[in-house]
Design a protein that fits this description.
The complex is a heterodimer of chains A (541) and B (540). Chain A is mainly alpha-helical and 541 residues long. Chain A folds into two domains: 421 residues, no CATH class; 99 residues, no CATH class. Chain A has a five-stranded mixed beta sheet with strand order 3-2-4-6-5. Chain B has 540 residues and is mainly α. Chain B has one domain. Chain B is built from 25 helices and seven strands. Chain B has a three-stranded antiparallel beta sheet. A two-stranded antiparallel sheet of chain B has the order 1-2. Classes of the chains: A mainly alpha (541), B mainly alpha (540). At the A-B interface, strand 1, helix 1 and helix 17 of A face strand 6 and helix 16 of B. Chain A: This is Glycosyl transferase family 2.
Chain lengths: 541, 540
Amino acid sequence: MTFSISIEKNKLGTFSQKIENIIGEKFLLVSSFILSLVSIIYSYRMNIIVAYGDAESHLNIAKRIISSLTPGLAQLGGIWLPLPHLLLTPLVYFDFLWRSGLAGSIISGITYIITSIYIYKTAYLTTKNKIGSMVASIFFMTNLNILYMQSTPMTEIPLICFLVLSLYYFVSYIKEEKLINLIYASFFGLLASLSRYDGWFFVIMQAAILFLRRFPFSKFRENLRKRGLTLFPFFTEKSEGELFLYSTIGFVGILIWIIWGFLILGDPFYFTNSEFSAKSQQNGFLARGQLPTYHNLILSILYYTVTSSTIAGLFIFAITAIAWILFLKDKNIKHRYLISILLFSPFLFNVVTMYLGQSVIFIPSLTPADFEWQLFNVRYGLLMIPAVAILCGYFFVKTHRLGKTVLTGVFISYFFLNSVGYSRPLAMTDGTSGLSKGSHPGAEIWLRDNYDSGLLLLDDYARTLSIIGSGVPMQNVVYLGNRGYWEKSLTSPQDVVRWIVMQKDDTVWNKLYKDKNMQGVVFKYYNKVYTSDTILIFRKI
Amino acid sequence: MIKKIIYPSYSGLQPEGAAKRIRWVDTETNRSFFSILCCFFILSGMFFFLTLKGLPGNPKSTEIKDILDQPGKPFELSPERGRYAMVMSFIETGNFAMTKTLADAVYPDVGYHNGKYYSYFTPGVSLIAAPFYLIGSAFQMAQVASFSISSIFALFNIYLIYIISKKIFGLPLWAALFGGIIFAFGSNAWSYSTTLYQHHITTFLIYSSIFLTFLMKKNGKWSWIMALYIWAAYGFGAFVDYPNIILMAPAIIYFVLTTFDIKDSEKKITLSIKPMILLTSIIFFFITVIHGVYNQTNFGSWRTLSGSLIGVKSIRENTNLLSPDRKSEINKLQQKKNPVNFFKEDSVPFGLYTLLFSTDRGLFFYSPVFLLSLWGLTLILKNKSPETIVLSTTVGMVLFLYSSWSDPWGGWGFGPRYLIPALPALSIFIVYGLVRVTHQLFAKIIAFALFLFSSAVSLAGALTTNAIPPMVEAIPLHTKYNYFKNIDDLFLDKSSSFIYNLFFSKTFSLFSYFFVIYISLSILAFLILFIFPKINKNDI
């Protein structure tokens, strides 16, 4: 005995056509906006917008530009690239947006929405299929790590936005050869290079692709013989023009930052040479034997592969790997190798920086159990999400019913797996309980309840406590970046500050407490009003 | 006598819609191969019997701890102790709550609820072992008889591999038999066929469901009985081990999908559904209700699993036993425990490495013959039949589940015991590859060489001990953490084999015993791989 249901094909066709008519950029705009809003509300209610220590630092840098003892662009410093902070500046003017972190949520949210649309457009360039391109965008939009990070003031989502925009226009240029697309690509490459150092690598890769795709391989030896070792053998007229046009805009950001380092901080490579640089921090790990990827290529590749697969979802990543193989074998896609290089440039960048000791990742499945921390910087894996999303969209288009079913099944199962705690958004876990977590000691709560007025001396680099959480107005904080005030506070604090907050072995501690002479001065003019194992707070008598 | 046999149009090696195959077979030859099959299964049974772990007698509860729980003894590890203790409790008291003596013997895999002690394990294995325990008790062989159920199910599994290879994929006899011995004797499945674990029962439930679903598609008449069995197997699977709900999912989805038939014509798509599958599911719900009643009766709630009970170990370490607030402290510990939290996606990379490649538990380290399954998989996936997909998905499900488990090592054990349910499928992939390969002789030589190594390792494990620590525990203990420990025990005559200890330990060294079994097995494998195909050119 069987029961049967019949559906006429022309009705299905009409239904499918209706779906295709609905999906598109407007649909993505609305859906990504809703997702962004829901995530931001969730993060706000859970009080995790400023969970990352770096999140507060980004907000504070922006705040100091307009509200500090020594406001101005010099507050941008020389380590982190300036663009995300400049974007935050108009919003952190409002204290509520600063302290809640919503200033960052707005910037990250807007860039998230733009990225969702442009992932759709980029996928459409290769697949020419609306539904497949929508799948790509959905994979990006619904990734929980992406959703969390777009609610925070961190810089990953703005970077991803500029990378995807640049990628889209670059691929458009390669396909259509319209110069305006190259200009857009270089412009967004410039913005990426002013957001994070991954952007530098990206613009270099784009320039390299422009150089290599028109390299006169077949005529090289002949040209070398004709003109000798000049530029001529390496370029055609067209490639020369392209490369110069691209570089004029694309590399400006790098140039500006190097000049900035030279003019403001005295060292054009301050961002890597300074004691506050990532490299210096990594030297600390190296000294403790806790930098496993340093000068180890295999481990560097393994760490970043595991990190990006964990952030994307292991099974989704496995499908991405299969999709990539199919993509590379697809002769219908003319520039598939060039597109692959750009999609995977974050992968190359992170492997290289880990190998050189410029960055570190700790992730539970790889990091030895005897390391002090098991979770750190896993958010770097987010930069592979655009590649994962676009390749999943491609996979959906290119495979038959079985492939589509598997992809859909895996995607749906992730909702279930996340709800039972099997999969967890590691980027959020790192911010709330990993090494990236901001510190909120009891001293912060004490200060929030007891601070009244006056300047407060604090070594902000040591992240003794959260300025946001303490309630102290930014213009009342004396820190390393307040030239004049900082130096004087460390020699005659009684003339400058009413409050001193010090943490064991930070600069303030070493200058004012460890030094017995200065300790005497401190105790002469200040009362110790708060004591814990590591933090002391003094208030002027 | 010549007989006409008509085969269905579909098998793994023929496209769907091909004309029905008609074979003219010699029934004399047919009888010969029946004899070969019988000999094969008798030999296999003998190999299990010769390596069955145990000692004569009916062990008392007071004898388990400190006497019979030493390495090489039948209750060397807590899983077999726990399950055997449940058998004893069930037979002696009619329920699964254990006495304090038994609870101490089963420690640390014992939970606590309302003043009573319960094993963490589900009662399914113990329920199956109970009649054997009773029969064995009458002959002073209670422990050996109970342990023999694993060997019996291992034999069933060999048969399932044979029948799936033959009927579903159309492989010749030699390949089907070789697949069976790869699984049974070329892997750590051998070690777990000689003691009281759940793995062979789980494997049986999965593959019998797959095979019966395949039969159901062809045979309309008895399909309702097969459907009843499959639903019952799924329901009972949870009684055997909780993860079976997930491990059996591919087989059950395959089964459910056979109820649907999609016909794609020019103008319309027709979806047909057989309601019989839904009607027979009543037995699954019935068994699940019984499971709920079991949980309610013993643990206070139908949703409370035995694995989620607060452990006696945890109570001893975290609470003050003399405190008047002891009960509320225990309740707080209970609320924190959630078995689902032991599975995590970010454990998968390390779990996969541990289960497949590590030197303490890796499948390819213990049984390198399974390296050939990767190659076989690439060949078999070209045949995108539902059965290929369900076998591949079963392997994937086993790997996915246990690589995300917080303890992929399976505690102290021999090889990757959690992968045993995946090994029949992998064995089928190997022999499928051997049949389809162009240079078959060369491939067979490689397979034979790898099988020789793998079976030597497996036999060493089956004859000595399963109590091999994971590397992380072995290093501080300054002991070995893989089959090298078993090889040491082999030369020190430390055997767990019932037959060896009872009859041969005073006469032969354990190595001699090992050698005789190993040579017999190697000859059997050689015959199957190289001689059977020569005898049987018109293979059925």
